[in-house]
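Protein modeling request. Please complete all fields; requests missing the sequence field cannot be processed.
Requester role: graduate student
Desired output: 3D structure, token encoding
Chains: 1
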Amino acid sequence: MQPRAQPVHLGADDADGIVQPRKFRPEVILLDIGLPDVDGDNIARQLKWEPGLEETRIIGLTGSAEPGLR
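Delivered output (70 residues):
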């Protein structure tokens, strides 16, 4: 038996970055850390200590070419 595909949930802003994981308890979060109006590092720090998300893997990504974000 093949595992069932899990849904993908998208967030559009910093509030979604916190609310969506609390609601859906994902196994993996792909988080853009280089957004112009949101500090993705801060969101990752908040989620790391969120009850029920301790085992969730957070993968930080960015489309920015700034050296400090690489």
